[in-house]
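#struct-help
A.M.: can someone run this one for me? Single chain, 256 residues.
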Amino acid sequence: MRFLSVMVLLLVSLLAGCASQGGSSGDTLRVGVMADYPPIVFEDENGELAGLEVDFAHGLGEALDRPVQFQRYSLPALFAALQAGDIDIIMSGISITPERQQHFLFSLPYTTIGQMAVIRLEDAGLLAAPGVLLRSDFRIGYKNGTTGEALVMKRISNGVGFDSNASAMEALIAGQVDAYVHDAPTVWNLANNPKYQSGLLGLYKPLTSEQLAWVMAPENRLLKEQVDAVLKDWMNSGELMRLKHKWIPVKILAGE
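D.P.: on it. Structure tokens below:
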């Protein structure tokens, strides 16, 4: 009888452990975001979160029957929060890289993009020719901690890092940098923002090819399986394409 009781306790413990790894119906899904990446995820004029990833998160929570709680971090702090167990998933336009794959689990990719550049319209004749930016001695801005930084630092020695898109745009307009490199959706958004549109030009020739996905802790394989199943359903039903087109109503090709 005592042996049976011990086995029951062990089974209960194992089941509880499994539930904590993936999260069961009703558990809060803690979603980490960096809200400086329009139209992927950003704060609207009322300070509320909006964007593609916000819609994705609400849809994922509904599919998993879990209420969604957003937590905002800087890019480096996102990965630290995931490692510490403070969040369950990062949904913030994160590119899959071999280095990140060594430490984290990624969902199936939900889109493929590339790094692009935005320049001042007045400099189009000088900078718009293919290959000029990263083969010449121009001052190229990037956002710290991103794959844009990795690209710029690998190709040129005149890179300038920024902590936000807003500060980068101020520097670009003021002539402190010659171009700003970021993911394609951000470049498209900045170049078409009425605040900058008359003075900026997006160069829509991709400099890289990258896949965006959601990030989970390596021990959270059950959640990854659940998330991938939802993504497959969205791909088959057309929901994934609908949400992407809502926020990025242009087709951005990737690859050089």
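A.M.: thanks! Residues 104 and 248 are 27 Å apart (CA to CA).
D.P.: also worth noting: Confidence is low (pLDDT under 50) at residues 1-20.
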